[in-house]
Amino acid sequence: MAGRGQDAHSLQSLLPASPIDRVTLPFRRFLAIESSSGLLLAVCTFAALVLANSPWRAEFAALWEWPCRVGIGAWVLEKDLLHVINDGLMTVFFFVIGLEIKRELVAGELRDVRQAVLPIMAAIGGMVVPALVYVGLRDVLGVSDDARRGWAIPMATDIAFVVGLLALFGRRVPSSLRIFLLTLAIVDDLGAILIIAFVFTESLNLAALAVGVGAALLTWLLNRLGVRNVGVYTLVGGVAWIGVLKAGIHPTVAGVVLGLMTPARSWIPMSALAEILDKIQNRLDSLPQAAEISPKLIRQARFAIRESVSPLERLEHLLHPWVAFVIMPVFALANAGVEIRLSALAEPVALAIAAGLALGKPVGILLFCGAAVLLRIARLPADVPWSVLAGGAVLSGIGFTMSLFHAGLALPATLLDAGKVGTLLGSTLSTLAGMGLLWHSLPRVATGQPDELPN
After folding, report:
1. pLDDT (tens digit, 9 = 90+) per residue, 388-413?
2. Is residue 201's pLDDT more than 50?
3. In this structure, is the dihedral angle defined by the CA atoms of residues 101, 107, 112 and 118, taken in order, positive or negative?
4. Do the beta carbons of residue 36 and residue 166 sit within 8 Å?
């Protein structure tokens, strides 16, 4: 019986030690995954560029045109592999973004308006000014009218790359800077989602939209009724995805909406779980030494533990590694491959996008932060001086994943390579300049205390 008591005790020890842990644990886990994911993204981007500029470029390009077909009877979807990745797998990516936005609204920086003002203002500046830079350079550089919606491309920040690069500085980076950039990126993502929904939707099929909206409402109703079966939600979510796709809206919007609708509260509170575990432990202690634990008791314990964690946190914990280490790297392989030509660096579209990322992004962030501080509606964190904030702002010009995604929606096929080159150029310049600024502005770690990656 001592063994059973020890098992129950070790089970309880897995629970968060205090309420603050339930807030900080998802954030620490997110940073740890993003740090590693950024390195993998860089490797896949480099591989895509090498293959796109190798003797096997034709075979590499043909790979993404491989036809994929799924359906039952007359209900058939047929897309090439590239669209399966961009419309299908990326829906899971946007679903996780929806979960992250919901988490920040419920328990993160966005919950407290006073704390959220600075990163929200920074995000707005980081979206508006790059778009204005692109529009301003469009006429000066002679950007084609076919690229008039390209202003959306330099607006987003790729937090995986940013967090991965910050990890190289270890404990020199104040946690408040990481929180600031993470919150900024989440607001950025929200802006990108709105752009996809309202800018890149040209016509609507109202009947199909009604199906998608009905499925989303059914998801809400199932949540209210306490339905916990993941298979049911997957089926209803699939109907919502098809409805949004057939309606003429990019299907990734469905992923975000479903993510935002995911419950952020657990069905069984932690206090109730502790009582349940105590009862289970008492029942175990009352059993004879050789008695077997009943399957019913095991099911009850598993159910209680599972439902003590909110669906939001459980799904984010389950899906985030798949998004970070599978979906985003596959997206990079499929979309980052572009033939590098010196002439492409002089393309007006490429230059406008690169300028929006490398110049517009940091200028917008710092300008709007300065206005917020000057108007006394926000203030800088005590451990983040303007020099450090400037380094983070420049690093935010890395737009990779969302910028490439927007490029695929905003540009015609004839200009898509130039858009990719502009994204890569702007992101590279932002990386070099941002890392240089942070290297000189971040405080040095005391001797005998080496830098380390975040836990």
Report:
1. 999 999 999 998 888 999 999 999 98
2. yes
3. negative
4. no
Q: What is the DSSP letter of 293?
A: P
Mapping DSSP to helix (H, G, I), strand (E, B) and coil, where does residue 53 land? coil
CA dist 123 to 285, 340, 356, 429, Å? 56, 31, 14, 20
How far apart (Å, rounded) are the C-alpha atoms in residues 6 and 181?
42
Report which residue type is found at 366: L
Q: Tell me how far apart the terminal alpha carbons of the chain are, to the nearest angstrom.
A: 36
Return the structure tokens found at 109: 């920086």
Query: Per DSSP, what are the bridge partners of residue 76?
Result: 71
Helices (H) and strands (E) in the chain, counts: 20, 2
Run of H or E including 2 = helix 2-13
CA proximity to 28, closest of 320, 260, 257, 264: 320
Which has more pLDDT, 342 or 395? 395
Provide the 10 A C-beta neighbour count for residue 135: 15
Yes or no: say if 434 and 358 are a contact pair by the CB < 8 Å rule.
no
Residues contacting 68, CB < 8 A, separation 6+: 78, 79, 80, 81, 84
Predicted confidence band of residue 71 (pLDDT cuts 50, 70, 90): low
Q: What is the torsion angle, in degrees rounded to the nearest 10, for the CA atoms of residue 275, residue 279, residue 284 and residue 288?
A: 160
User: What percentage of the chain exceeds 90 in pLDDT?
Assistant: 32
Phi then psi dihedrals of residue 129, to 5 deg: -65, -45
Q: Which of 93-102, 176-185, 302-311, 388-397 has the lowest mean pLDDT?
A: 302-311
Q: What is the pTM of this model?
A: 0.79
Higher pLDDT, 31 or 145: 145
Residue carrying structure tokens 């298979």: 231
Residue 217 CA neighbour count, 13 Å, CB half: 6
Residue 80's beta-bridge partner residues?
67
Which sign, positive or negative, has the C-alpha torsion 451, 39, 23, 380? Answer: positive
Sign of the CA dihedral with 209 first, then 214, 220, and 226 last: negative
- The answer for residues whose C-beta is within 8 angstroms of residue 449's C-beta and 6 or more apart is 171
Where do we find the tokens 């590239």?
A: 82
Provide φ and ψ at 72, rounded to 5°: -130, 120
How many angstroms separate the CA atoms of 422 and 397, rounded? 12
Q: Which of 391, 398, 385 is nearest to 424 (CA)?
A: 398
